[in-house]
Predict the 3D structure of the following.
Amino acid sequence: MYHDLGDDASSNDLYLLSSTSFRAQIEAISQLARSHRTPLVRLAAEPQPGIAVTFDDGYRSTLAIAAPLLEQHGMPFHVFATRAYCQSGDARYLNETDLYELASLPNVVIGAHGTTHTRLAQMSQEDLHRELLDAKDWLQQVIQRPVDSLSYPHGSFTPATAEAVQRHGYSYACSSQPGTFHSVEQRFAIPRIDIWSRDSARTATHKLRGAWDWIL
């Protein structure tokens, strides 16, 4: 799981990975698994280990930096966009034109990351309904494609949240819980491996191989 990419050497942002590090990681990851899938829910049916590359929040670097590199390596990827961020006018985030362009690229899937990036597990049923419905409807209108996937903002969800996500027409949802995806029964709580700003290509591949699982 990635967030933002860039080259701000002064940044202490845990989720801002340098483009140089990202390139090195993708080159290493592309050799790590035979299967690179999106929609990522298909990974559960793969006989060989596979990798799905995902981005949360909807940063513009997914279009400017990630897309060309991943296309070069033939790796599909999944972007989960937050409506409030993308409509904020903040140049760090994809705007609606960017989202449409990104969704038009081959092997790219756009999913929802909430309307306001609020913790879903802490919402009332009424607010949760609006958060899930508005995010989905807006994104479908922008990209002119069905939207059936979600990433839980802040990784916040409960079994009741997951049930609500399913009722609102989503087919699968990603969590921030570390781990690997083994069964379609996990499709509304798909675990992911978080990649941080200080992670090297070696560290990233070690994480994917499970070398850091002992700290969980």
Observations:
- The radius of gyration is 16 Å.
- The first strand starts at residue 4 and ends at 6.
- Strands lie at 4-6, 16-18, 35-36, 50-51, 53-57, 77-81, 108-112, 149-151, 172-174.
